[in-house]
Amino acid sequence: MQPRNMSMSGVVDLAAVKAAQEAKAKAEQARAEAARQGGGGAVSPADLVLDVDEAGFERDVLQRSTEVPVVIDFWAEWCQPCKQLSPVLERLAVEYNGRFVLAKIDVDANQMLMQQFGVQGIPAVFAVVAGQALPLFQGAAGEAQIRGTLDQLVTVAEQRFGLTGLAVDPEADPGAAQPAPAAPAGPYDALLEAAVQALDAGDFGGAVQAYKNVLSDDPGNTEAKLGLAQAELLQRVQGADPARVRKEAADRPADPQAQIAAADLDLVGGHVEDAFGRLIDTVQRTAGDERESVRLRLLELFEVVGADDPRVAAARRALARALF
Asked: Fewer Cβ atoms within 10 A, N terminus or C terminus of the chain?
């Protein structure tokens, strides 16, 4: 079976963007709490490769993934390709020196986990980053391909989730370092959860109000700012006729409102660079209040995607050139 790669760039899943920001914030809180309690020390190289079963999955994979990407190797004793792939992954886990942790799952002994991940054949390799599962490849793969996939994974984990990996100490005792404790509940968790439920129910107006309620008390709340930008975007495109919006944008390239409406649809459809580029081009063609309205919408879309996304950084530079 030929490897099936998954690209970790391109479309932006709005729900995943929000979850990424939540996970990043919680990971930072968890690391701070671990440091306050004297935990979170360096791990032994032996702790970079784990045999994981269903009982330890939450602790060894889900909880650990808030600190470091966890690569999952689904294997079985009878699988000959697995016996070729697994040693390569184990060696690379040590070589990458804490930038990811390898979790080995025997599918014969852990059928439930195999079903939950939708594994159709082995070897199959997944990653879990901040609690989110990502398929990496299935079947035999060459080392160069594996390295490329791992490099992409650790870059995404750092840029989008703030996960920089674990410190490794060859002198550390194996098993001494445990996953960071779960972050304590924050004062606005109930309001934020209400906003998420409203989003899930398609009540975008309710979600907007819930996020605004948090921001009225805590203007710097990162999660609420991101959620508000997302909810307002979804509210704007709700009920829009995509064909009409795109035709108007094509027919009226100098119309700021037509381009703004099309950019919203671009972003919701996952075409991040198209949305940014459309508005930057419109900034160059406009002036005064019209230009300012386009600039402000572009900044709102930056909030939706997240300041850590490299596409946002590139678009900010392009916007600066367009303005000055």
From this structure: C
Residue-wise pLDDT tens digits, 27-54: 555 555 544 544 446 888 999 999 999 9
Q: What angle do CA 304, 28, 153 make, to 5 degrees?
A: 65
Asked if 278 contacts 315 with a C-beta cutoff of 8 angstroms, the reply is no
Structure tokens at 2: 């030929």
Strand order in the sheet with 124-129: 49-51, 101-106, 70-75, 124-129, 132-138
What are the structure tokens assigned to 237, written together?
């495109």
Strands in the chain per DSSP E? 49-51, 70-75, 101-106, 124-129, 132-138
Span 245-256, mean pLDDT? Answer: 94
Give the SS3 label for residue 128.
strand
Q: At residue 12, does pLDDT exceed 80?
A: no
3-class secondary-structure state, position 316: helix
Contact status, residue 74 vs residue 126, Cβ threshold 8 Å: yes
- Contact present, 153 and 71 (Cβ < 8 Å): yes
Angstrom distances, CA of residue 188 to CA of 129, 199, 205, 285: 24, 17, 19, 42
Q: Give 109-144 pLDDT, tens digit per residue.
A: 999 899 888 888 999 999 998 888 889 999 888 999
Catalytic pick among 8, 42, 79, 94: 79
Rounded mean pLDDT of 228-250? Answer: 92
Active site residue 137: no
**How remote is the C-alpha of 219 from its chain's centroid?**
24
287 belongs to the catalytic site: no
Nearest C-alpha neighbor of 264 from the set 248, 273, 275, 274: 275
Query: What 3-state class would DSSP assign to 230?
Result: helix
Spot the catalytic one: 49, 82, 228, 294: 82
Q: What is the pLDDT of residue 191?
A: 80
